[in-house]
Design brief:
1 helix
């Protein structure tokens, strides 16, 4: 089922995500939900495609922040 849905990403509902360091710039992503799980695919931005996965309700604030230090 997930593969079938992914093939139809253009029909998924859209939602906006704000870029943290650019208050006026947003990225429009596509969201798919099933059984309290969700996936958002954000288009290639700055050379990267971002795919987010979550459980339960989505975040109230949709803000992307670049990670510059991945150390624990």
């Amino acid at each position: 089922m997930a593969e079938e849905e992914a093939a139809q990403i253009s029909s998924w509902p859209t939602e906006e995500w704000q870029l943290h360091d650019r208050d006026t710039e947003t990225v429009v992503g596509r969201r798919w939900e099933f059984a309290d799980l969700w996936t958002v695919v954000l288009p290639s931005h700055l050379g990267r495609t971002v795919i987010l996965h979550g459980l339960g309700p989505g975040p109230d604030e949709r803000i992307l922040t670049a990670v510059t230090d991945a150390s624990p």
